[in-house]
Design brief:
- By secondary structure, the chain is an alpha/beta fold.
- The chain folds into two domains: 77 residues, 2-Layer Sandwich (60s Ribosomal Protein L30, Chain: A), CATH 3.30.1330; 160 residues, SPOUT methyltransferase, trefoil knot domain (Alpha/beta knot, 3-Layer(aba) Sandwich).
- It is built from nine helices and ten strands.
- The longest helix has 17 residues.
- The chain starts with a strand and ends in a 5-residue tail after the last helix.
Length: 247
């Protein structure tokens, strides 16, 4: 379990709705705030969560002038999930997202948000050389981090092997892949691996993948932002699972 403070209307509201964490107190800036604050105040009051009116400068100082929208929530107990929990709670064909060394909290938050939107069972991240769950990640995920299990693991290659033992295919995103994602069957039980910014997947992780997939590129730039690339792949999985796979 870990303590965590979060800011912004969507993250605080989603944390209040979630059964994966418990907000112990909410700070709201004095004066008139955005429309969404009304829902937060109402929800917090209904759950008997203390609400404190504070000067906006206090929120500015706490968040280092981040766009807090006049609200901060304090979470006493938030915990990473474990892999078994992910498999117990999933619906339909297994669908996982493995992130091998994402360091930018905004990229991690955006990927978690997309994963939630696409029905991913859980997101797996490494403990070392990668960002964990932070206030910026929570804000960038629009609160999705409080609804989708996030697993913190010591060793990504070992975790990939454990996933494969469950009959799940592992597809790694790699620019050098011989086939693109539109010419692979992604309807099978699947874990998608996205490498870190700049360096991509580490060789040890890449060797554990059952297949490598690329995204077609027509311009002069030969790569995409990690969160953009991940989102394209996740939505192609979603598309294929609702339609006949591309021949």
């Amino acid at each position: 379990m870990m303590a965590l403070w979060i800011y912004g209307i969507n993250p605080v509201y989603e944390a209040l709705r979630s059964d994966r964490c418990q907000i112990r107190e909410v700070w709201v800036a004095e004066g008139r705030g955005p429309k969404g604050l009304e829902g937060i105040i109402s929800r917090a009051q209904s759950e008997k969560i203390p609400i404190s009116k504070v000067e906006r400068s206090k929120l500015d100082s706490l968040t280092k002038n981040a766009p807090h929208q006049g609200v901060v929530g304090f979470i006493d107990q938030w915990a990473y999930a474990d892999l078994d929990e992910v498999f117990q709670g999933g619906e339909g064909e297994p669908f996982l997202l493995i992130l091998d060394g994402i360091e930018d909290p905004r990229n991690l938050g955006a990927l978690i948000r997309t994963a939630d939107a696409c029905g991913v069972w859980g997101v797996i991240i490494p403990k070392d050389r990668a960002v964990g769950i932070t206030p910026v990640v929570a804000k960038s995920s629009a609160g999705a981090v409080f609804h989708i299990p996030v697993v913190h693991v010591t060793n990504i290659p070992t975790t990939v092997r454990r996933i494969k033992e469950r009959g799940i295919w592992v597809a790694g995103a790699a620019a050098e892949a011989q086939t693109d994602l539109y010419h692979n069957d992604l309807t099978v039980p699947l874990a998608v691996v996205i490498g870190g910014e700049g360096r991509g997947m580490r060789p040890l992780v890449k060797r554990e993948c059952d297949l490598l997939i690329s995204i077609p590129m027509k311009g002069k730039i030969n790569s995409l932002n990690a969160s953009v690339a991940g989102s394209i792949i996740l939505y192609e999985v979603l598309r294929q699972r609702g339609h006949t796979p591309h021949p």
